[in-house]
Amino acid sequence: MTPFFAGAQQKPWQLVWADEFKYKGLPDTSKWNYDIGGHGWGNNELQYYTKNQLKNARVERGFLIIEAHKEKKEQSNYTSARLITKGKGDWSHGRIEVRAKLPRGRGTWPAIWMLASTHPLKWPDDGEIDIMEHVGYNPGFIHFSIHTKKFNHIIGTQKTDTLLVKNVMDAFHVYAIEWNEQSMQWFVDGKKVFEVTNDGGGYEAWPFNQPFHLLLNIAVGGNWGGQKGVNDSIFPQRMLIDYVRVYQRR
C-alpha cells in the first residue's frame, strides 16, 4: 500500500494498522473484539450485540459485513454486531480511514467512531470521536462530532456538523479523520468537511491526547436512531466495510 501524503511540509503518513478483509469467515480475532449485550448501550437502543455470529458479523467477497436482523435475542427484538479494536488497535493521533457503504431504512443507526482506551472508561470525560454517524430516517446526512466533559450532547454543547452525501446507501465512500495534539479534521472522499481545534481548556475540553480505539456497529432504534420509529420491513440491513486503515507520521 502506498502511504498517504498530506502536504509537502510534513512527514508522510505511514500505514501502521489495517484490515483489508481479504479472507472469509469471522472477523480476524487478532484485530477485532466484540461488545456484547442488549442493555440499551446508554441510548435506549433496541438491538442485542452478538459475538462470533456469522449472521451479524462476517467477512466475505473482500468485505466486512455487519448485519442487523429482526429476531428475538434475550430481551431484545433485534440482533446486530459492534466490533471494537480495543487492546488490539489503540492509537494516539493519526489518520483513521474507513471505506464503507451504509444500511438504509428508518430505525438504522450505523456508526464509525472511537472511544478512549481507558479502563474503566468514563464517558463523556474521556472523549468520543464520531467519524461517521447516519440515522436512517434522515437519509444521506452524515454527522461528525466529538463528545467530552465540556462538549457533549447531554448538555447540548457537542461540537458537530452534518454533510449531505449522495448515495451513501448504494455506493462506497471513504470516511476519515486526521488528528493531532491541536486539531481534528474530518474528510469524506478526501475532501475536508469539518474541523475542531484544541481550545486549551485542558482534559475537560480535549481528552484526545491519549490512545483511542475504533468501533464499527449498526444500532437499531434508540434515542436518536429511533426518533421516527423502526420500520421492521427493512430487515436485514447491512453495513459493508471495504477496508480500515490507520496511518501515523513516522
Which SSEs are present, and which pair or pack?
Layout: E1 13-19, E2 33-35, E3 47-49, E4 57-60, E5 63-73, E6 76-80, E7 82-84, E8 90-91, E9 94-101, E10 108-116, E11 128-133, E12 141-147, E13 159-164, E14 173-179, E15 183-188, E16 191-197, E17 212-220, H1 222-225, E18 237-249
Parallel strand pairs: 3-6
Antiparallel strand pairs: 1-18, 2-7, 4-5, 5-6, 5-18, 7-17, 8-17, 9-14, 9-18, 10-11, 10-17, 11-12, 12-13, 14-15, 15-16
Sheet with the most strands? 10 strands, mixed
Q: What percentage of residues falls in helices of 4 or more residues?
A: under 10%
Q: Which overall shape is indicated by the principal axes computed on the Cα atoms?
A: globular
Determine the number of helices (DSSP H or I, runs of at least 4 residues).
Answer: 1
Instruction: Report low-confidence residues grouped into runs of 5 or more.
Output: none
**Terminal-residue CA separation:** 16 Å
DSSP strand count:
18
CA-atom Rg in angstroms? 17 Å
